[in-house]
Amino acid sequence: MASANEDDPFLQVQADVLSTLDITRPLFTSYLRIRSIASSASSPELAQARNELETNLQELSTDLQDLVDSVRAAEKDPFRYGLDVEEVARRRRLVEEVGGEIEDMREELAKAVAGTQGRGGAMGLPSPSAFDAEADEDGYAAYEQQRQVEIMHEQDEALDGVFKTVGTLREQAHVMGRELEEQGEMLDEVDTLADRVGGKLQGGMKRINTIIRKNEDTMSSCCIAVLIFVLILLLILVIAL
């Protein structure tokens, strides 16, 4: 971006204009001082000061006209030149301010020499209000450009809203994931407890089965003993008869 700014012709001409203007201001102040003490309009010192000032104003007029043309082109399609609306407005204000200052100097020169209004006009200095002549035809284009900027801004805000929503959903997903992990740990604990209870139940059933089998053996022995006792009694009765 810095290299692009360095290669911008407007900025180069702007630097030349501001540099020349810094030189012209002391000349203008000197001219006013000499004019205030000069005894006549044909004073050699006054004429020299006026000529130097007119030369600088002529140079500023030429460079300023280039800046005016550049700003007019940029106002029609700023994005084509890689500029935003604020930069174009700044350039226009700069041109108007410099143009107004040069116009004031030219008017002072016109006051000093009678009949030089025509020569002052021949300098071709663009009026600060020169933009107003094209304001109507450029108004719609400027409105469209501003509208495009607003639409882009609205789209950026909408995208920001989408990003915020996605971020919220992502956080909710993380919360749900943590809850599922906690529930999984709880289920693992329940399974472990169920396995322990199941093992205890199986042990209890085995003990019950063992007791039942032991009881069954005891009852069988008793029945056999009773049968033997009955058989012995029958034998004794048979023998006795």
Which features would summarize this protein structure in a list?
241 residues, mainly alpha, 0% strand
Structure description:
This protein has about 240 residues and is mostly helical. It is built from six helices and no strands. The radius of gyration is 54 Å and the shape is rod-shaped. It starts with a helix and ends with a helix. About 10% of the residues are buried. Residues about 115-125 have low confidence and may be disordered.
Per-chain topology:
Blueprint: H1 2-6, H2 9-37, H3 44-76, H4 85-112, H5 117-122, H6 135-240
Mean pLDDT: 76
Structural class: mainly alpha
Work out the helix count: 6
Largest sheet: none
Order of helices and strands: HHHHHH
What portion of the residues fall into strands of 2 or more residues? under 5%
Which term fits the overall shape? rod-shaped
Q: Percent range for helical residues?
A: over 70%
Low-confidence segments: 113-124
Distance between the termini: 140 Å
| Beta strand count | 0
Global Rg = 54 Å
Brief characterization of the structure:
The chain is mainly alpha-helical. The protein has helices at about 1-5, 10-35, 45-75, 85-110, 115-120, 135-240.
